[in-house]
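Quick one:
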Amino acid sequence: MAIVDRVLSVLGASTPGIPLLVGGCSAGRTHALQAVSARLPADTVPVYLDIERLATTPEQCYRALVRHVRVADDSGSLPAPASLTSPRAAFAAMLALLTSASAPAGRCFTFLLDEVLDLRTFESFPGLKGLMADTAQALVLAPNRFVLATRFRQRSATLLATWPRVSLVDVNDASDVDDGRSVEALAGLDTHEQQQVLALTGGRLGYAVLVTDAWRGARRQGLTDAISVLAEQMSTGSALERRLRLSYEVRLQRARGYGALRAILDVLAEQQPLNLTQIAQRMTRTPGSTKDYLSWMLDVDLLTVDRKRYTVTDPLLRLWIRLNNGPQAPSEAVIAREAQRYALDRLGSLPDIAAVAAPRLSSSSSSGGIIEID
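Output:
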């Protein structure tokens, strides 16, 4: 059963549940929420809310909701934002709007809350330390419906364990959808080329869209292979490179120990998997402090651990780190070499890989820095 069908099944159960879409950066969570919104039944009004954008102060968040959500005239009175005297009162008003307000024509709302774990931002305000438990209790009793999403897989485990009636919907990859998004994203490529794009991007829809767009554009310059396109997209300032940089910074900013975490990622970008002792030796830190650093990165899904050996979770992000752990932007030659090394490793299991030629740097300035094929 594809993602949208699983979400609708949870919402349509005899006792409706709360679907939680979990997928890493560029896995396609937001696109999946939009697809769910388009297929909701007519008895509900969908409202998409990006909590990451709204999580400033409870008062500002409530003001934004009042402006954005059109409630029925007979929905009951909502307090005016100016009348709220504390962060606690503002958060209570926000929960009341989400859970109890009704839409015009007697319909209920279905709120699609993207990056729902960013509600924890409000815990730093007076009276709101227990807000996640309060939110869980309010949502499960509400007449309105909810679909949640987050990029943080490890942190979502806590939500699944403590919030009633929450059901995990794993946003696996670009092929696990039923709304035509993967077909549209990969349009213009043949079956073998589509397999290469999905292999190179780890199946993440956001990455696949950017690589496919670049491939279609490269064809106008006579380039027709995946490795050249990937190398071009790893250049500083390209669309894919910017997306990877954002993924890197967002996760590090959510974790602690920024500088030490970057150093560990540099180590694993060069060689993985490594165990705790090996990482500590390369960091010249104690195993105890290194274990703390590793746990902080596991918490935001930057790393994965299997049998006590650590790896960077996103393979394409690992390539980006390898290219950008020096004092200056990587040269075209370095990008070409590392992109080829990465691509041949990722594409090695696909049929006809021998037909993919090794790229070389163009000797002609007219190529605009894009790599050509022998």
